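Problem: given the chain below (396 residues), write out its structure.
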Amino acid sequence: MTIRHVNTLILGAGAAGLMCAAHSGPDTLVVDHAKTPGDKIRISGGGRCNFTNLYTAPENFLSQNPHFAKSALSRYTQWDFIELVDKHGIAWHEKTLGQLFCDNSAKEIIQMLLAEMRPAELWLKTEIGEITQDGPYRIALKREGTPVTITTQNLVIATGGKSIPKMGATGIGYRIAEQFGHALTDTRPALVPFTFDEAQKAAFAGLAGTAVPVRTQCDGASFDEAMLFTHRGLSGPAILQISSYWREGRPIALRLSPDVNLFEALRTRRQSAGGKALTTILAELLPKALVLHLAETWGLSGNLADQSDIALRALADRLENWTVTPTSTEGYRTAEVTLGGVSTDQISSKTMESRRAKGLYFIGEVMDVTGWLGGYNFQWAWSSAVAAGRAIAAKP
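Solution.
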C-alpha cells in the first residue's frame, strides 16, 4: 500500500473545500468521492450560482451560538469574494434582495476556484476510509479502487451536510467529528419545501402552480417573498426561508399580498365598483385560483357593496392572518442545506480549528451555521474556508 505525507488534507471538493485549498499554503491535497468538483455549485441558482449576498451579516445565520460566525464573516466579506469574481472576469448581476448570480454559468465559479487553488492537488473518485491519529492523522483512501494512506498534520473537514443525497451527501463529516469528541446539534432539512397530507393535497389541488406574494411567519421569523402552491404542498422563496424555523406540528402564518393594505383597497373599490362580486374584486388583488379556493372554503359571496366596513375588516384580517399547518417537508432530497451539524462549542471562531484535536478543522455546511436563502450559505463557505486556510498557511 502506498503511504504519502501531505501538509494539509481537505476532505470535500465543494465550495468550502476548494476555497480552503486556495489559502492553505503548499503541499495541499483535496479529495472527494465525486466524479467532478463543485457539484452543488454547478446546480445552484438554476445553474448560475447565487454566490453571495450584498447584505450578508451575522443575523442572516442560524446557530446555537449566534455569535460564532461573526469573526470569519468580518475577515472575509462578500466584498472580498466579489473582488475575486471580478478579478477572474466573471460577469454577474443582482437579481433581488442582494442576491448575486453569474450572468452566464455557475461553472465559471468552479473554474475560478480550481485556478485559485493551484498548485494544490485534487483527487476525485476517492473513497474515504478509516481515520486515525498517532501524531499525524492517518487517512485510508481508495483512489479509483487503489488503496492509499495519507498522513497529514492538518485535516480539514469540508464534507458538507446531508442535503441532496443524490449528489453524494452522506453526513460523513458528522461521524468524523464525533470520533474526535465533538458534539452535534440536531440536524434537519432546511431551505426545503413543505408537504401536505392527502386531505390537504386534495383541498389545495386546484392551486398547484399558483404563486402569490406573502409574508411568512413562524417562531419569531418573518420573510416577505413569493409562495408557490405545488402538487405536494408549498414552495417558493418565502416558504424555503421559513422552513428553517418551522418544526413539525406548528402552523405557519401567511399574510397575503403584504405590500397591500387589503382593507383599504377593498373599501376604495367598493366606492367605484360596489356592484361587482366580492370575489371579482378580490381577484384584482390576489390570484384568481386562490380567490376561488378561499371563496369555497370561507363561503365568500355577494357583491362588494353588500360588505360593511366591519365585514371587510374581518375579511382583510383573515387574509392577513391565514394559517396553514404543513404535515412535513420534502426532506433532504430537495433541501438546499442541512440545519445544525457540528457544534461550534469546541471550535475556534477565528481559525475553525478544533479545540479537542490539534490540526483538525471544520468548515462550511458541516458546522452548526446555516444561512438564509439567497447566497448566504456560499458566503459562509468562503469565509470559514479562508479562516481555516489562512490559519494553516500561517503555521511555522
